[in-house]
Specification:
four-stranded parallel β-sheet; 8 helices; alpha/beta
Length: 274
């Protein structure tokens, strides 16, 4: 169910993607599309279907899950879904004779998604969330403009040494409170606490943006859109992580993994200068 979205983001972020989207659908294939609609015609037999920024129409057989992020799912009378059917930012329309073996999950709006965990969603909270995200996008674009080469090195390290980056990030999280405690104990060290906190915050933001750039890059490559400017890759990755983050608990775990891995890469590359 909700683990589908988290797993999708983790796979895109942590490991190389090999997605086959054949023109003629074949048995055992999976369909993943970005920015366009997907149609599974009558008689087609596919493994699973994922559409990001598009809607899905199913008239054939889907053995596992059907997931639309930012779109609707329309199940025809001849449709058969062996797993879960999920629409985030859209609705699930099911014909009378359509067959679904799993669960049907709808999160028709941002308020609906957040309402699953918070129960109460206000217009002010939604506006604050969107403005915060837009502000972070602006900050990310500024970082790309000023530190494009450094971000590229950090992203490259995450891509080639994902496990090492994640490991160093975990070590850093363990050491941060220890170092903070030592600074508090030391009279002289107290003066450096604000600087230390600022440095850690900058490292986490920088690393998260680099991880987002890698995610956006892999999305473009997976869908054979060719090489794109770093600005486009960063925006693509940040938007996808933001959408995934709307899923309660598991969405935030995915984003935390991105932060930790980015932090580890920052440490190993010394802010992209090594």
């Amino acid at each position: 169910m909700k683990k589908i979205i988290a797993a999708l983001a983790m796979l895109m972020f942590l490991c190389p993607i090999a997605i086959a989207v054949p023109t003629a659908m074949q048995s055992q294939s999976s369909i993943v599309r970005f920015g366009e609609d997907v149609v599974v015609p009558t008689g087609a037999d596919v493994e699973s279907v994922v559409a990001i920024g598009g809607s899905i129409t199913v008239a054939g057989n889907v053995k596992k899950d059907v997931v639309a992020i930012g779109g609707n799912v329309n199940l025809k009378n001849t449709a058969s879904v062996g797993g879960d059917t999920m629409a985030i930012g859209g609705k699930v329309t099911r014909a009378e004779k359509a067959s679904i073996n799993g669960e049907v999950v709808e999160m028709a709006s941002l308020g609906g998604a957040l309402g699953k965990s918070a129960k109460i969603v206000t217009i002010g909270g939604i506006i604050f969330s969107l403005l915060s995200f837009i502000g972070f996008l602006v900050l990310a674009l500024i970082l790309v403009a000023l530190f494009q080469q450094q971000l590229g090195r950090v992203s490259f390290y995450i891509e080639k040494e994902t496990g090492h980056a994640l490991g160093w990030g975990i070590i850093a999280l363990i050491l941060i409170p220890v170092i903070t405690l030592l600074l508090i104990i030391s009279l002289v060290g107290i003066l450096f606490i604000p600087l230390f906190v600022l440095l850690i915050a900058a490292a986490m933001v920088f690393g998260y943006v680099a991880a987002s750039q890698l995610l956006g890059k892999r999305i473009y490559h997976a869908f054979k859109r060719g090489s794109k400017p770093m600005t486009s890759e960063v925006l693509m990755g940040l938007i996808l992580l933001y959408l995934v983050g709307l899923v309660p608990i598991l969405g935030w775990i995915v984003k935390l993994v991105a932060v930790i891995t980015g932090l580890g890469a920052i440490i190993k590359t010394r802010f992209g200068n090594a």
